[in-house]
Amino acid sequence: MTARKIIIDTDPGQDDAVAILLALASPDEIEVLGITAVAGNVPLPLTQKNARIVCELAGKPQTRVFAGCAAPIARPLVTAEHVHGKTGLDGPQLPDPTMPLQDGHAVDFIIETLRAEPAGSVTLCPLGPLTNIAVALTRAPDIAPRIREIVLMGGAYFEVGNITPAAEFNIYVDPEAADIVFRSGVPLVVMPLDVTHKALTTRPRIEAFRALGTAPGRMVAEWTDFFERFDKEKYGSDGAPLHDPCVIAWLIRPDLFQGRHINVMIETKGDFTLGMTVADWWRVTDRAPNAMFMREIDADGFYRLLTERIGRL
Ligand code: BDR
Ligand code: CA
What we know:
With 313 residues, the chain is an alpha/beta fold. Helices cover 37% and strands 17% of the residues.
């Protein structure tokens, strides 16, 4: 199997951080061409810094990290310090990164990489608001047919919303960007809350990370300890969802997930439903399918994969 070339577009975020670790721990399946940071969970200066902290934690300081858009296309930035803490990576204290931030804008890196690599060979993996991806598609429409797939974390149908009653955070923060991506014609695989809310941490799952006895293993355990408080209180659940690693896990083990190829549209105007992913799960319209929208996950298999891979770092 040749490794799939990916660009991770991200706003770390503890769950983004675990996703990055999973990708960097899986070189047989995944080649990370670069990591592009976007404003989301916290502002851009923190997300680009956090991305570099995570690369160093993984022992991969040669990974290229680029800073992208600092604000959504048409709205002020909404952040999520209430979930992730004021640094975005709250929990254990981590040293500032020494690896450099790359020169150049993340959007230029995305465009140039898609033009330079063979058509159909690069997968984009957005784990935050879709600003960088939408700006790239708008500025360089020629890249759309060159993208193999966009595999993203965002949206919800049965679970509806986490930042508003109707909307999931990544889509809500930049609904205009999401609208561009969902109308782009690029094949989409979507990991909504419907999946990630089934990928909950539990005490034994967290302790399995800690028991690895490595710095990345301990860090994953402590990060999840940190943001678990918020979700437990909010949902009354046993643990917290590890949203973003579902994207990377799908690249490695698509058999862990099930969904439907359906039409998904983004609400960009609703007073109460801004950022809603209107998913035609029951196929009641004749709108053409544009996304593989996931609903089920083998959570035990997912955590086994995560623990085994984090253990390789
Ligand atoms: C998404 O929002 C962020 O807080 C997480 O990192 C994840 O990407 C979940 O709604
Ligand atoms: Ca994220």
